[in-house]
Write a structure and sequence with these properties.
By secondary structure, the chain is of the alpha+beta class. The chain has 2 domains: about 10-95, Orthogonal Bundle (Arc Repressor Mutant, subunit A), CATH 1.10.10.10; about 100-235, Trafficking protein particle complex subunit 3 (Muramoyl-pentapeptide Carboxypeptidase, domain 2). It contains 9 helices and 9 strands. The protein is elongated.
Length: about 240
Amino acid sequence: MKDKSDSPVLGPAPVRGSAGPALSGPRGVVLERLQESPEPVTISGLAAELGVHPNTARDHLDALVERGLAVRGRAPAQGRGRPAWRYTAAVDRLEPDARVRDYAGLAAALAGHLARTSADPGAEGLAAGREWGRTLMSDRPAESAGTPRHRVVHLLGELGFAPEADAAATTVALRRCPLLDAARQHPEVVCQVHLGIVRGALEHHGGDPEPTALLPFAEPGACRLHLDTAAVRAGGAGE
């Protein structure tokens, strides 16, 4: 019988050690691997685990070192040859950026309050997120390129969701969540806020906000966001 601990975890990973420019999806995965590993990670070991070329693994690891998110050191010498490099997460960067941490705490408190006191916490969360999405877009510099959907995907990247979209930005995997703990505790509120952000941002750019759907914790490593009417209807997705 398979142990439950071997089952893949549904939903996105938390945003951790993300101060400064956002990490790419693959680089964020490497950082999470370092943070979760009880032992130092080698280039060859990481490459084998992720199924990538060692040079690719080295590039990601060295980039994290340059950002101050990882520490590199030589393994103890064993026989001839130069010892392999070993990488660990920087111990002072394991916690989220202070802005993310404070925002997450406030959001969790507000979500809990809505869940306890509102007759329809999901609807209120959706409305609040929608207003927030319009505000986020109105505060940004004017963008001349890209469809409303592509602009929304770009915004989600800036917010820390590490989105991976198809070419037309009709379906998006959200690999990170800046409010993961709060979303797990109160998904009926927090996930609707996130859907509201998407709808408000689409509305700001003249896109159709209604035929969108967010499927929380839909698959291992991601939530699934649909931004295309046809895709939503074909897949039978809803809110």
